Amino acid sequence: MARHHRRVFAGWLIMVAVGLAGLPHLLGSVLAPPIEVSGSESQRASRLMADNLPTLGDETMTVVFHSSVRETAHPMFRAAITAATKALRQEDGVSGVLLMPVAGDPDRKLALADTLEPLRPLFHDKHTAYLMVGATGDDRQRQERAPLLQIAVDRAAQAASNGEVRAYLVGVSAFGHLVQQIEIADLLRIELIAIPLAIAVLWWGLRAAVAALVPVLVAGASIVTTLGLFSLLTGVFTVDGMLLVGVNALGLGIGIDYALFIMGRYREELAAGAAPERAIAVAAATTGRTVLYSGLILLLACTSLFMVRWHVFAQAGIGTIAVIVVTTLAAVTLLPAVLVRVTPWLDSAAPGTNRRTGRLARWAEHLMRRPWPYAIGVTAGLLCAAIPVSDMSMGIDLERDAIGGTPYFAGLTLAENEVPGSSGAIAVLLSRPTDTAEVDSRQLQAALRADPDVVAVTAMDDGDDVTAILVWSKQSIDSPAVVDLVQRIRTDIVPASAPSGVSTLVGGPGALAADILIETSTKLWWVIGYVLILMFLVLVVVLRSLLLPVKAILMSLLATGAAYGLTVLVFGHGSGTAALWPQVPLIVFVLLFGLSTDYELFLVRRIQEEYQATGDNRGSVAIGLQRTAIPISLAAVILVVGYGSLLVSRINGLQEFGFAIAAALIIDATLIRLVLVPALMQIMGRWNWWLPWSPRLSAPAREPSSGANRFPSRCAAAPNAR
């Protein structure tokens, strides 16, 4: 790469140019992924309802009409409803419009009166009315049409009422489109904070301007290239705002980290007198190989996301794997070419390095003499920090703070003030043989009405083979009570009260929320098991040890558990008033295990390198700690900056995600890598390298005659890789 740097630069320049050219198209194509769990009962119910009850469409939205000065019986209010209904029927993707019972206007005729009239007791606000709107099309089409429907319906209502009646569209697609716009706006704010902070931290840590800019250049090229790849695949791959934010944070973090580690080894070799090409060869053969291992481990960990049947996780898996591959490729191709070209301005060692290394040497010597108190103390502290995990809960978050002031929020607030469960309606579908008489569902309806969390029940039949029983809950969709209600309907009410000879499906927004939470909470344990087994097997191969992989997994579990506990404390999820996004605990676990394994590899492989050369465990641990503590700490700070910047987002899920990652990385880079890992490796001694089928590492060639106080006066240069 260094010898053919012109070709390397040309290739990356083309990829970056393609990425920049495709960025406007990508930002204009963001789309919330399908909000459904593949193969779930709610998905099957949605398909059945769309096929047999076209008036309700593939998705049922609600238009909320409101006037602070006119009552619903006033001619202007009536004219607004009529005009909006006509405007909606002229829009593409609208399969049906049904007026709900209107408080204060009992004489208003209703289509499907037998179905809708039983709902009249729900509505009591004489200044508000509702339309049910059936929307057809796939997720992309419905989300793209949602803002157009909002404009059309509000414009028609205001024109017919001289601006005295407003109309607000509420629905899953309208919410998805709104959140995408917020996430894109947040992405720009996050980048304006993260990139300058990363450069400032690098300059402070490296004390060299060019050395600080090189990792940012490599990370930036990786991110832009990945986004360019996404822009080429928008037709077949859904990209949403949260994925873009996550890819930018991960790409910035690991891109700078990988470049920082390789550049640090390169500068170390230059300081030892090696020529640039020889120095980059040694850096690539040692630290560069560790980077490849780290990228591979993180990539394999992210494959676990495909185990969850929610499209959000498949999207996250594809996105993270793409940025990991591109970033690792940049670290072993673009970075060597750049380093050799900027060597005259790079500075072989940063001012203050010797002073900091001296402090680390004294700390290492102190830790090697007293490993047990530090190991016990840090472990106890992290276990205490993890205690709040028992209060952690997951739930649907409507991001009410983020969407405040929007038409969607205005409509949602009006609807929930009158009918709290309007956003979490449940549909019980009864399927019977074709062309048979409508089933008698009165017993089932009575059982549903008897549930304390149900406020209204009504039925609708297609006249052929499907009866839909619509259930309104007392609680909004983001309440845990809705999930409990869905579970009772499925496991208790339907089996005991459904008519014989029919098959039943429970769907609707409330059932969808329940299926999402059930899927993520169940698959969390599958993902944890998969990642733990995978990490163990890969680390055994890479580290040539049985005990070190076990230690690495336990250390990562400690850091992750403590981060979860702190997240619960900071965001107040133990109070029962809020819940983590269902994506957050699972994706955080996968990324944290991959990222913490990176630091484990950089530290332990450097210790292993010294141990293979000297056979002195204590001295090797001390030297490895001295040589990697500063790069690991600096790399962790960069990742903390990248993920910590998500705290400026207005989306609660992004704040939770950023905080959990940042907290875990701070714990990992300080308490784990600077204290706990070296202390445990000193305690385990030669058992660190025990591998039954590899006696070469189990019994090193030379063991010092006395392990007491064997510390070199300076950090000996590691042997060059041959």
Concise summary:
Helices cover 63% and strands 8% of the residues. With 722 residues, it is of the alpha+beta class. The model is unreliable at 349-353 and 697-722 (pLDDT under 50).
Describe the structure.
The protein has 722 residues and is an alpha+beta fold. It is 63% helix and 8% strand. It contains 23 helices and eight strands. It has helices spanning 5-27, 41-52, 75-89, 113-116, 139-160, 172-206, 209-232, 241-271, 276-302, 311-332, 334-341, 343-346, 353-369, 371-385, 407-418, 442-449, 480-497, 508-543, 547-571, 583-614, 617-644, 652-684, 695-698, and strands at residues 59-66, 94-99, 128-135, 166-170, 421-431, 454-461, 466-473, 503-507. The strands form two sheets. The chain has a four-stranded antiparallel β-sheet with strand order 2-3-1-4, sandwiched between helices. Strands 6-7-5-8 form a four-stranded antiparallel β-sheet, sandwiched between helices. Helix 8 runs antiparallel to helix 21, helix 13 packs across helix 21 and helix 16 (442-449) packs antiparallel against helix 17 (480-497). The longest helix is centred in the last third of the chain and has 36 residues, at 508-543. The protein is elongated and about 95 Å long. The chain starts with a helix and ends in a 24-residue tail after the last helix. Mean pLDDT is 87; it is low at 349-353 and 697-722.
